[in-house]
Amino acid sequence: MATRSAGARPRRSLRVRTGDEVQVIAGKDRGKRGRVLRVEPDKERVFVEGLNMVKRHMRPQQVRDGQGEKAVGGVIEREGAIHVSNVMVLDPKDGKPTRLGAVRENGKRYRVAKRSGTKLD
């Protein structure tokens, strides 16, 4: 019998995917909308474009490009992670937050907006 470590969660897929339009329903950015840039299913977190901005102090590092080498560093602002429970996917039909369901057609699985029945995939 396989055992799990104390902090490990069972692996499950998230309904939110990269490229989805979402609205934040809790936290400091509540009510704001954006596009999902990245999803981390293991940590159940998403990164939304322009939301939950955090500052990172980066040491200058050599970056190669066509012109030559540049040192990039200083205080950099980028998106922070938001827990997946704090965002809702927007319905493509009317742009309001909706829950998602799944429908199978011809052996293929599609995500469906519960609000209007519109396919997302």
Task: Give keywords.
121 residues, mainly beta, six-stranded antiparallel β-sheet, 50% strand, elongated
* Category by helix and strand content: mainly beta
Q: Round the mean pLDDT to the nearest integer and report it.
A: 88
In terms of per-residue confidence, which ranges show pLDDT below 50 for 5 or more consecutive residues?
Answer: none
* Morphology: elongated
Number of strands: 10
Distance between the termini: 38 Å
**Biggest beta sheet attributes:** 6 strands, antiparallel
- Strand arrangement across the biggest beta sheet: 6-3-2-1-7-8
Cα-atom Rg, whole angstroms?
19 Å
Order of helices and strands: EEEEEEEEEE
Oligomer: single chain
What helical percentage do the residues reach?
under 10%
Structure, explained:
The structure is a single chain. With 121 residues, the protein is mostly beta strands. The chain contains no helices and 10 strands. It has strands spanning 21-24, 33-40, 45-48, 53-64, 69-79, 81-83, 87-90, 97-98, 100-105, 108-113. The strands form 3 sheets. It has a 6-stranded antiparallel sheet with strand order 6-3-2-1-7-8, with no helix packed on it. A two-stranded antiparallel ribbon has the order 4-5. The protein has a two-stranded antiparallel sheet with strand order 9-10. Strand 9 and strand 10 form a beta hairpin. The mean pLDDT is 88.
SSE arrangement:
Blueprint: E1 21-24, E2 33-40, E3 45-48, E4 53-64, E5 69-79, E6 81-83, E7 87-90, E8 97-98, E9 100-105, E10 108-113
Antiparallel strand pairs: 1-2, 1-7, 2-3, 3-6, 4-5, 7-8, 9-10
